[in-house]
Amino acid sequence: MPPAVLSVTGLRKAYGRVVAVDGVSFDVAAGEIVGLLGPNGAGKTTTINMVLGVLAPDGGAVRIEGLDLGARRSEILERTNFAAVYSPLPGNLTVVQNLRVFGMIYGVRGLTGRIEALLGEYDLARFRDAKSGVLSSGEQTRLSLAKAMLNQPHLLLLDEPTASLDPATAREMRARIRTFAAQGGGVLWTSHNMHEVVEVCDRVLFLSRGRILLEGDPRTLPGDHGKASLEELFITVAREPLSLESA
Amino acid sequence: MSPLSPRRIAAIVLRHFYLVRGSLSRVFPLFVWVAIDMVLWGFITRYLATGTTFRFSLVTALLGAVLLWDFQARVMQGVTMAFFEDVWSRNFLNFFASPLRVAEYLAGLVLSSIATSAVGLVVMLLVATAAFGLSFAAYGALVVPFLLVLFLFGIALGITGSAVVLRLGPSAEWFIWPIPAVLSPFACVFYPLATLPAWMRPLARLLPPAYVFEGLRAVVAGRAAPLAPLAAGAALAAVDIVLACLIFRSVHRYAVRTGLVARYAAESVS
User: Fold this and answer.
1) Domain spans in chain B, listed from the N-terminal domain onward
2) How far apart are CA A151 and CA A107, in angstroms?
């Protein structure tokens, strides 16, 4: 088993009496793509926000490449990056300006060359001087993914990264992320598209009410629980989590 | 604790440079309002001086005070405007989920403010000198501590204002714009501290600008340079900056604890 890029132990977060994440533990190995699945409000985004250091856990620990996020946040986040559907890059900067500013923040060496390479890879070259805010949602998503790849991260966090992409572009992006993992990067991926999850993820974690309910290979997990597909299993997790807990 | 990264600080400044360079609506406010203020107060000063004999130069005392007060307001707004750009573009998650540290972010805002407020200062000086004969030479070397104290206090106000908006949300920016106007009666911009009623004087003494404007009037009236009070004003301003940074750090920690940073962008902390 390759070493864990991300190791989450006993993570807990409550908002008043509402427990959003309740003792979640999991690892993401180098080269592995792990899907974090669950219905709305299950605690996926809360978990990702804690791994990104923008939300302090009430308990538990996040370690990235063996380093404690709470103690060495800036150093760790230089090797991490993310793209989230709800966090577009500033719309008042152009595509190249955004990539340059974030490249400097992430300490990217040979930044000009890296930007040019990403503009080509993510089909953004023709928009290089366009304000990011006027791009279509799919183009903005490609820009967010390009920004997420700027620093060639060891850990990539993707919160519904293909939500606004057309099927052809989404397939291309999935291929890029699989290539990224094949080169040794770890990926934590949330998606509501179960076909995509089956295609991309090596392993999935089903979250329900802040806890990990199921874990396993997305291709065999449905059969293990008497379901025909991952989508059917997802619906069961969303509607009848207790039936799976007791199984 | 590792040292601050100049590269990350430069990224914040570069971001603001890109925004200002590409937008007339951001370039104009750097100098238009202060230029209008100079013209307005220049004429008021000229009118007040008509037919009246003062023992001192009204231009140096009154128009100079307006210029210095406007400079401080520009410094404050230089910080808050750079911060508001991140509020308006919902950029907190991108910045605060990156290696960028709070101190680096604040340093970037301050450096941006130095650049933008310097533009305002130069324009005000040009207008006040060319149109109304104001000369900074009348203040002698004291103009340096005058500007320094006001700069430091403007930075402290800007950082505190940014913390308030981070804590209370985007609509709280309307608490921030009037701050210079709210403070001006206590700062004794246009009149000596002794003019204030007794209950206002202790508050005025807590404000560094009050020492600057008392000093300015002393110099214009030909009295000895008030070095000790100015040093007290500078010390107060330095303390205010430290307090402002502590307030911002505390609010940021609160925002990370409660999920406010994520909600600023996501509105969906599940």
Assistant:
1) 6-266
2) 7
Distance CA(B148)–CA(B153), nearest Å, equals 9
Residue of B nearest to A44 (CA): B270
Strands A186-190 and A33-37: parallel
How far is it, in rounded angstroms, from Cα A5 to Cα A14?
Answer: 26
Dihedral-angle region of residue B169 (phi above 0 means left; psi in -120 to 50 means alpha; beta otherwise): left
- The CA distance from A165 to the nearest CA of chain B, in Å, is 19
Distance CA(B209)–CA(B232), nearest Å, equals 11
Q: What's the pLDDT at A244?
A: 65
* Residue B192: predicted pLDDT: 93
Q: Pick from A215, A212, A167: which is nearest to A34 by CA?
A: A215
Q: Read off the amino acid at residue B167.
A: R
CB contact under 8 A, A82 and B97: yes
What pLDDT is recorded for position A1? 64
Quote the ipTM score: 0.91
Domain ranges in chain A with CATH number 3.40.50.300: 4-79+156-245
pLDDT at B270 over 50: no
Selecting from 3.30.1540.20, 3.20.20.370, 3.40.50.300, 3.40.50.2000, what CATH number does the domain A4-79+156-245 have?
3.40.50.300
| Average pLDDT over every residue of B42-68 | 86
List the structure tokens of A144. Answer: 């967010």
Amino acid identity of residue B123, one-letter, is V
pLDDT of residue B53: 74
* pLDDT tens digit sequence for A100-130: 999 999 999 999 999 999 999 999 999 999 9
Backbone φ and ψ for A69, nearest 5 degrees, come out as -60, -40
Contacts of B96 in chain A (CB under 8 A): 53-54
From chain A, which residues contact B within 8 Å (Cβ)?
Answer: 15, 20, 40-46, 49, 52-56, 73-75, 77-78, 82, 84, 86-94, 97, 100-102, 104-107, 147
Q: CA-nearest residue of chain A to B252?
A: A54
The pLDDT value given to residue B266: 47
